[in-house]
Write a structure and sequence with these properties.
9 strands, 47% helix, 2-enoyl-CoA Hydratase, Chain A, domain 1, alpha/beta, three-stranded mixed sheet, six-stranded mixed sheet
Length: 269
């Protein structure tokens, strides 16, 4: 992937100074996903593994909303007519989007406003940092359409973010979580006024872009991999990861800047 020339078909893409922005752009329907946009997002995050110029990613929506989930007409309607093999192919494909987001080495910041429901809530959940506008309304509403809450990794990830009891409440009742509640529960890192959302998310992302990007990608990798490790295995994995980071030029740059009493300038190598 060349982030400067990449032109997706189903969402907007911009790239400048190490920061990529993915904008879901179907505002008339509150930015729902289709079969094609699911697949293109998955493929984009897979390609970002090799896009070294991209240091951080912001995900956002247009029209005052983040994402309303799977499109009722383009996805839900066809699903009720499918056979089991087709349904399983679809659910595996949607789950693969989360796998791709978690496997993407660059930190992902979700800028959430307005409606953030269903698969939209999952995309926010799968991001590394979540910044919310005061009007954000988040709901894992699978239960309300007759489906299980165990969708796209929700039963694995959500309890780790907000705790088992709170995750159970959201997944079993399908109720809406307000922005303030999401911040208290640890789902959102920060809640800001609506007109400050994009600026706040960008500031968080720029800080990452200007930081030790290789080391940050290593942190994200270890956060993912250590879910299934014993403590002893995790400590050894972190020892190896840190030793690798100690060989980077950024580590030396930070030391030399400290000695010279100046702010380090990281270059991601």
């Amino acid at each position: 992937m060349n982030p400067r020339t990449f032109t997706p078909s189903h969402f907007q893409w911009s790239f400048s100074d190490g920061l990529a922005t993915i904008t879901l752009n179907r505002p008339e329907r509150k930015n729902p996903l289709t079969f094609d946009s699911y697949a293109e997002l998955r493929d984009t995050f897979r390609a970002l593994v090799y896009a070294q110029d991209v240091k951080a990613i912001v995900m956002r929506g247009t029209g005052g909303n983040f994402c309303s989930g799977g499109d009722v007409h383009d996805i839900i309607g066809p699903l009720v007519e499918m056979e089991m093999t087709e349904l399983l192919a679809f659910t595996r494909m949607t789950g693969d989007l989360v796998t791709a987001m978690r496997g993407c080495p660059q930190p992902i910041i979700a800028a959430v406003n307005g409606v953030c429901t269903g698969a939209g809530a999952i995309i926010a959940m799968a991001s590394d940092i979540r910044i919310a506008a005061e009007n954000a309304k988040t709901a894992f509403l699978f239960n309300r359409v007759g489906l299980a809450g165990c969708d796209m990794g929700a039963c694995a990830m959500l309890p780790r973010i907000i705790g088992h009891g709170r995750a159970s409440e959201l997944l079993l009742y399908g109720r809406t979580m307000s922005a303030d509640e999401g911040e208290r529960w640890g789902f959102f890192n920060r809640v800001v006024p609506i007109d400050e959302l994009d600026t706040e998310a960008r500031q968080w992302a720029v800080t990452l872009v200007n930081g030790p990007c290789f080391a940050n990608s290593m942190t994200k990798t270890q956060l993912n991999q250590e879910w299934s490790m014993s403590l002893e295995t995790a400590i050894e994995a972190e020892a190896q990861a840190q030793a690798i980071c100690m060989q980077t030029k950024d580590f030396r740059r930070a030391y030399e800047a400290f000695v010279a009493k100046r702010k380090p300038v990281f270059e991601g190598n």
